[in-house]
């Protein structure tokens, strides 16, 4: 089984399954062109916990919980679960913050950009161009010797269960719709994207499938472009292509394909910021070593550094909405361009200063 998922057929199978389940989740109630979006769903989780008060984007998304738990289960079964961390955690936290700011200027993570394209949203083409540009810049730093240094294996295996434990806690809260008092969390949207949701159990099962398959196959949208730029390796790219083609076919069958630039759900057509938002996100993903979906998978495997990046994204979502940086269908937030600018300066600086000089033989 391990050999299968390490093969081309395995990565294509993962892309096909995600390409089927994501549009089906949309059909069953998730937001349009957003069957699964790690950035948007982590933003909803931040809102549900009261970290921001944008009332239309608040819900503890079971898909995110399922991805982490699914990855944890198969990593344990495959003896790949290792508690580890200590690889520049504070840098990774702020990379997560700025990755989220960039993603919310565009309105989607790489997974959603692909699903938006498969649904006919041509604005996604601009986002994907920006994503590729950011990853290309990051790959140049990697070629020069960029590193956040190796993580260390923790003596106590239990340290790797912190993020899965957090997800189990969130699952308990959403399953029983816990309230901590009037005007206090949990907050669940009654209108807008946060109120559009598939049934909890189905969403959780889909998330578990995403996490399990992506952990086995090492599926990563950022990695597919990074490998293409650095080594011309197309292995991960086959999975991404399979996702887009499958989601396109399923959207046609379900009547969810609507091509065009204008009037697309939860999207804007300010092309410059669609590109630049994803340049920032792609660069941050590349410097951190994985797209947001891959970071969830790694966190499920016991990687504390990936968990720090995930928490950075959640905090970045709160910053985006609390400081008027997040976009909406009406356009980019008033301070979104400032967030992108500061984020690019931060990421380019980190990429430059974290290059480890190669020693030349005496």
From TrEMBL:
The keyword Transmembrane helix applies. The chain crosses the membrane at residues 12-29, 59-78, 90-113, 125-142, 154-176, 196-214, 235-258, 270-292, 304-323, 335-355. InterPro entries: Seleno_YedE, Sulf_transp_TsuA/YedE. Keywords: Membrane, Transmembrane, Transmembrane helix. This is YedE-related selenium metabolism membrane protein. It comes from the Bacteria. The keyword Nucleus does not apply.
């Amino acid at each position: 089984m391990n050999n299968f998922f390490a093969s081309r057929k395995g990565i294509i199978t993962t892309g096909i399954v995600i390409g089927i389940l994501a549009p089906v989740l949309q059909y069953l109630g998730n937001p349009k062109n957003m069957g699964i979006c790690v950035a948007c769903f982590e933003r909803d989780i931040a809102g549900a916990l009261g970290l921001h008060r944008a009332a239309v984007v608040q819900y503890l998304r079971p898909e995110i919980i399922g991805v982490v738990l699914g990855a944890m289960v198969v990593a344990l079964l495959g003896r790949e679960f290792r508690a580890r961390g200590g690889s520049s955690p504070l840098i990774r936290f702020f990379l997560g913050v700025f990755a989220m700011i960039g993603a919310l200027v565009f309105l989607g993570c790489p997974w959603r950009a692909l699903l938006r394209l498969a649904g006919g949203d041509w604005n996604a083409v601009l986002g994907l161009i920006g994503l590729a540009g950011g990853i290309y810049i990051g790959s140049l730093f990697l070629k020069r010797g960029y590193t956040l240094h190796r993580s260390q294996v923790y003596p106590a295996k239990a340290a790797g269960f912190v993020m899965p434990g957090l997800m189990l806690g969130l699952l308990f809260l959403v399953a029983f719709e816990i309230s901590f008092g009037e005007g206090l969390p949990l907050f669940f949207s009654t209108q807008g994207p946060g109120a559009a949701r598939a049934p909890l159990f189905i969403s959780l099962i889909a998330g578990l499938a995403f996490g399990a398959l992506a952990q086995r196959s090492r599926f990563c949208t950022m990695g597919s472009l990074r490998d293409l730029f650095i080594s011309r390796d197309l292995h991960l790219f086959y999975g991404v292509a399979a996702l887009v083609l499958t989601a396109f076919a399923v959207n046609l069958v379900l009547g969810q394909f609507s091509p065009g630039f204008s009037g697309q759900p939860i999207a804007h057509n300010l092309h410059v910021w669609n590109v630049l938002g994803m340049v920032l996100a792609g660069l941050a993903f590349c410097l951190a070593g994985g797209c947001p979906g891959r970071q969830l998978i790694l966190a499920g495997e016991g990687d504390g550094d990936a968990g720090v990046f995930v928490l950075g994204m959640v905090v970045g979502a709160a910053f985006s909405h609390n400081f008027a940086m997040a976009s909406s269908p009406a356009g980019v937030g008033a301070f979104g361009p400032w967030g992108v600018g500061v984020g690019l300066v931060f990421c380019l600086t980190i990429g430059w200063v974290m290059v480890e000089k190669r020693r030349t033989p005496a």
